[in-house]
């Protein structure tokens, strides 16, 4: 019995579906479009990126034989940040483009994320290695990491590595923070006479790296489908047993994109959306009361079970916690030790009162180290337990007042890591491959500081179009580790957008009835196998 399942073997061997511009035997013609500045704080962003700010967006169209690149390329790739299904196919796209330019091309994979770039730790990727990873999930081919290339010394050593390796291009496969890093590196290289071009590919299951030119980040589709399979199963379990309220926390950092997509897929009784909580200024008491109202109404219909979903970033969007976390960040940045006592003493009275109200586990989780980009590690905060506790207390209060006579038995789930390395869906296989192919083509055309962009994704894969967008166009200034930094602005759930509106239209009836939908596992060979996710389709087609 081999180490691989039959499905794994089949997926590795299968041909990824590619757009016509990728399969065409003609070359790619570069078409320059409008120059794009940053959306917010543009003067401050411009000042930080004098060489690479305001570049034009480009499209790569099917050209003529004269557009074929016939020279060998030397490209380095790095997987950065959290895993996302499709990463290996980005590398496959880079590899195939480079080999198409010349069999003498070289593709190098930096090991364990940006740390490999700074320290020159890499391997050469050949045809055999590449074949082993096509269409597979995970980042195990090279490993990943969350290091940030930030200091002058780190940038200088990255440049020395790129120069010594004679890289034409460095392709950063990462999320918002990693692509910000790519923009910083591109600027540094350009300002210091290094000829290595740096381009990015939008990766993250969180789905928060998107804009009018980047319809979605790769990995979101597969991860959301994987979680939705599990949620659908849990929903049917509770429908049969009628015993439990399942509280399900979903990964996604600040953005509720994953939670919203899973809600559209599975129709739970409740799904909190952080962005709405913030927009309505809802405090913990209001959120608790809303869930308790639903539990009481269901109990009146004889239902003592249900499914409640929440995004992992929720806590940062509840106003009193948002203020608390902001002050904790500043206090930690000022050097106060991360202990409950020291923090309690350092906080202002209003925030101290909120902090005091929290269970010890949540207090400790809020004090945890930030990641290298200064983010609170929301994946470690068990908000679902906190919420179930406050709901249980409210239900007991109502029971005492004779307003509730049901039973409330919560079960807890947190879905995240199990979706990040799943076998990529057809959409993610093709999208990731095309991103890699595009990024390599941008580098080959001498372009830097761009993110690969695939458009027309509402059409069949064969008709997708490709190009590049300046990364600085997505940047604005944000406080990180207590200092103003340029970062790519996260794409949170748009409360005016079609996906949220579709959810808002139906959620009241989903609350009281049991309209659970079980999408089942990702399909590779059935009729719907090429279908993408609800979010993308609502966003692109309304
Ligand atoms: P990226 O932004 O790097 O893609 O991270 C995605 C993510 O899965 C988040 O949803 C989650 O909060 C975080 O990574 C968890 O981080 P870690 O893998 O370091 O525990």
TrEMBL record:
Residues reported in the UniProt entry to bind substrate: 204-206, 243-244, 251-253, 312, 417-420
Chain positions recorded as Mg(2+) binding sites: 176
Occurrences of domain Phosphofructokinase (ranges): 74-328
Active site as annotated: 206
Record: residues binding diphosphate: 82
Residues annotated as site: Important for catalytic activity and substrate specificity: 177
Residues annotated as site: Important for catalytic activity: 203
Compartment list: Cytoplasm
Similarity annotation: Belongs to the phosphofructokinase type A (PFKA) family. PPi-dependent PFK group II subfamily. Clade 'Long' sub-subfamily.
Protein's job: Catalyzes the phosphorylation of D-fructose 6-phosphate, the first committing step of glycolysis. Uses inorganic phosphate (PPi) as phosphoryl donor instead of ATP like common ATP-dependent phosphofructokinases (ATP-PFKs), which renders the reaction reversible, and can thus function both in glycolysis and gluconeogenesis. Consistently, PPi-PFK can replace the enzymes of both the forward (ATP-PFK) and reverse (fructose-bisphosphatase (FBPase)) reactions.
Assembly and interaction partners: Homodimer or monomer.
The protein's name: Pyrophosphate--fructose 6-phosphate 1-phosphotransferase
Lineage: Eukaryota, Sar, Stramenopiles, Ochrophyta, PX clade
């Amino acid at each position: 019995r081999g180490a691989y399942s039959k499905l794994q073997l089949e997926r590795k061997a299968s041909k990824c579906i590619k757009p016509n511009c990728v399969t065409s035997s003609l070359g790619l013609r570069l078409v320059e479009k409008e120059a794009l500045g940053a959306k917010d704080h543009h003067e401050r962003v411009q000042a930080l990126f004098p060489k690479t700010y305001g570049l034009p967006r480009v499209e790569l169209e099917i050209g003529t034989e004269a557009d074929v690149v016939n020279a060998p390329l030397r490209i380095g790739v790095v997987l950065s940040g959290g895993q996302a299904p499709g990463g290996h196919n980005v590398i496959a796209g880079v590899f195939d483009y480079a080999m198409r330019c010349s069999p003498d091309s070289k593709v190098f994979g930096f090991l364990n994320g940006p740390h490999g770039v700074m320290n020159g730790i890499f391997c050469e990727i050949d045809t055999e290695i590449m074949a082993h990873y096509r269409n597979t999930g995970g980042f195990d081919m090279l490993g990943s990491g969350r290091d940030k290339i930030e200091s002058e010394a780190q940038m200088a050593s990255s440049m020395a590595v790129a120069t010594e390796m004679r890289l034409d291009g460095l392709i950063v496969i990462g999320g918002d923070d990693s692509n910000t890093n790519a923009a910083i590196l591109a600027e540094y290289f350009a300002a210091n006479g290094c000829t290595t071009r740096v381009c990015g590919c939008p990766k993250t299951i969180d789905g928060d790296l998107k804009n009018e030119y980047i319809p979605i980040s790769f990995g979101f589709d597969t991860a959301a489908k994987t979680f939705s399979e599990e949620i659908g199963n849990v929903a049917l379990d509770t429908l049969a047993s009628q015993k439990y309220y399942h509280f399900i926390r979903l990964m996604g950092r600040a953005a509720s994109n994953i939670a919203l997509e899973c809600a559209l897929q599975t129709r739970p009784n409740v799904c909190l959306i952080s962005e709405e909580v913030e927009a309505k200024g809802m405090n913990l008491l209001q959120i608790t009361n809303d869930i308790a109202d639903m539990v009481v109404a269901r109990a009146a219909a004889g239902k003592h079970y249900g499914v409640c979903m929440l995004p992992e970033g929720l806590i940062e969007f509840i106003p009193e916690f948002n203020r608390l976390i902001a002050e904790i960040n500043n206090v930690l940045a000022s050097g106060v030790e991360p202990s409950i006592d020291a923090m309690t003493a350092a906080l202002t009275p209003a925030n101290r009162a909120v902090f005091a109200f929290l269970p010890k586990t949540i207090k400790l989780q809020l004090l945890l180290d930030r990641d290298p980009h200064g983010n609170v590690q929301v994946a470690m905060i068990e908000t679902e337990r906190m919420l179930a506790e406050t709901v249980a207390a409210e239900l007991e209060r109502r029971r005492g007042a004779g307003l509730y006579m049901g039973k409330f038995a919560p079960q807890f789930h947190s879905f995240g890591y199990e979706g990040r390395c799943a076998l990529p869906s057809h959409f993610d296989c093709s999208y990731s491959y095309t991103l890699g192919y595009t990024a390599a083509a941008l580098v080959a055309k001498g372009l830097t500081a761009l993110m690969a962009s695939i458009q027309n994704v509402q059409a069949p894969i064969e008709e997708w179009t490709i190009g590049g967008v300046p990364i600085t166009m997505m940047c604005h200034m944000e406080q990180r580790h207590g200092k103003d930094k340029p970062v790519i602005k996260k794409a949170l759930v748009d409360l005016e957008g079609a996906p949220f509106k579709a959810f808002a239209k139906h959620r009241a009836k989903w609350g009281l009835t049991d309209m659970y939908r079980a999408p089942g596992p990702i399909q590779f060979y059935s009729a719907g196998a090429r279908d993408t996710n609800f979010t993308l389709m609502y966003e692109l087609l309304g």
